[in-house]
Write a structure and sequence with these properties.
The complex is a heterodimer of chains A (209) and B (205). By secondary structure, chain A is mainly alpha-helical. Chain A has 8 helices and 2 strands, in the order αααααααββα. Chain A has helices at 2-11, 37-61, 70-92, 94-100, 102-105, 111-119, 126-156, 186-203, and strands at residues 158-159, 162-163. In chain A, β1 and β2 (162-163) form a beta hairpin. Chain B has helices at residues 2-14, 25-31, 35-64, 85-107, 109-115, 118-122, 126-138, 143-171, 183-197. Classes of the chains: A mainly alpha (209), B mainly alpha (205).
Chain lengths: 209, 205
């Protein structure tokens, strides 16, 4: 029994209970960072760290938080971790920090974090809460990476900033190819995400609405 | 004056919180199932944005900005507290939402029960915190501009959620491929609406 529950914690958030495509959490701060794969991965990593550690802390304190003020307590814990991440990014990777701009700060109000704390960490022991937070962050990162992969490849012909589509293919160099400018625009992130949901629900009929 | 009108129009249409920055998507998708509740949440967002933005502006200007504490004593001229901005903003927003909730509960019980769970949810609506962070990043010149920006973004959010709710009410009767039903089609529609809103780009009075 114990073993089965643990396995569920690891696998469910990645596919069956994916925070973005099934639970509809944490879309707010995610889509704008998917123009490039690098930004998406940094964002995913930050969210994973914040979710995991704030779940851990809240789970440790869960018996001493008064019910009425729990939202404020949760927000303060989460905000503290986000400030840490923000300062680290500013110090060691200033370009990425500039690129992600306000979206790092918006991790505070990312619904995944509050959602996992409310739904899981408040009622479970610290270690499962930590794992649950981490894997929900990874599930979020997975969707972000898929969307960013297509947007960067089709929109700018690069991956992680390296040119993938050969230069000679481009129209400017006498070829036949040109980048799809639509992919860089914000609305395409939503349409791609809609397609991801479509594919996922075609594979797994159980989560259809 | 024309600057304010410009900023107002721009924050409603061009820099629309939902279609240009995806802020507040969670409640946008969760609450846009019928027009009436969507409008209720929209009004609450307008109100909270229009009040917390000037408040946070004042806090940033006189407490957090590099050298902002100079009015207390010249010794503080080199102090930079701007790294605290996240925690201060979210505290202001959470506290303000709590106050609004208590006031509404006391003086307008009817409105309170119709808004129900949405009021506390606003504290974690990304559009509100996003508004404050954009305000800091774009460096608005005074409280008036911060207020105009807050009001405009709120109205933009309101328009978006009401339009979305109206479309989804109609969508209930249409024949959509099964796996796409519900969430999938909502994402795609939001994307298409976003493309439509892009036609406002570059509008200037």
């Amino acid at each position: 029994m114990q073993k089965k529950m643990n396995k569920d914690i690891y696998t469910k958030p990645l596919f069956k209970n994916n925070p973005i495509t099934v639970l509809v959490l944490g879309i707010c701060s995610s889509l704008a960072v998917t123009v490039q794969l690098k930004g998406a991965l940094v964002m995913a990593l930050s969210v994973t760290l914040v979710t995991a550690f704030s779940s851990l802390i809240i789970s440790l304190m869960r018996n001493s938080i008064p019910n009425r003020v729990r939202i404020i307590v949760q927000l303060v814990v989460v905000a503290m971790f986000v400030i840490l991440i923000d300062q680290v990014l500013k110090a060691f990777s200033y370009d990425t920090s500039k690129m992600l701009s306000v979206y790092i700060g918006l991790i505070i109000t990312n619904c995944i974090i509050m959602g996992r704390i409310e739904a899981f960490a408040l009622g479970n022991r610290p270690w499962p809460s930590f794992v649950d937070g981490a894997f929900n962050g990874l599930g979020y990162g997975l969707v972000l990476a898929i969307v960013a992969f297509f947007r960067e490849l089709l929109g700018s012909g690069t991956l992680f900033g390296f040119q993938i589509i050969p230069q000679t293919w481009y129209i400017e160099n006498g070829g036949w190819y040109s980048n799809n400018g639509l992919m860089i625009l914000p609305p395409m992130a939503l349409i791609l995400l809609g397609c991801v949901v479509w594919v996922q629900r075609s594979i797994d009929k159980e989560i259809e609405e | 004056m024309i600057d304010y009108i410009n900023l107002f129009i721009k924050s409603i249409f061009v820099d629309n919180m939902i279609f240009a920055f995806f802020l507040g998507m969670c409640s946008f998708l969760a609450v846009s199932k019928n027009v009436k509740t969507a409008a209720g949440l929209g009004f609450a967002v307008i109100f909270v944005l229009a009040v917390t933005l000037p408040l946070n502006y004042i806090l940033f200007e006189y407490l957090l900005k590099p050298g902002a504490l100079q009015w207390l004593s010249p010794d503080f001229a080199s102090l930079d507290l701007s790294f605290l901005s996240y925690i201060v903003y979210i505290a202001t927003i959470a506290a303000f939402v709590q106050i609004v909730e208590m006031v509404v509960e006391k003086f307008a019980p009817g409105l309170y029960s119709s808004l129900g769970i949405f009021l506390p949810l606003i504290a974690v609506n990304c559009a509100i915190l996003g508004g404050s962070l954009f305000m800091e990043q774009r460096g608005y010149a005074n409280v008036g501009e911060a207020f105009t920006f807050g009001l405009g973004s709120g109205i933009g959010w309101f328009l978006a959620i009401v339009a979305m709710a109206a479309i989804r009410e109609k969508l209930a009767y249409s024949n959509i491929p099964k796996p796409l039903k519900g969430l999938g089609i909502s994402y795609i529609i939001t994307g298409l609406m976003g493309i439509a809103f892009m036609s406002f780009m570059g509008i200037k009075l």
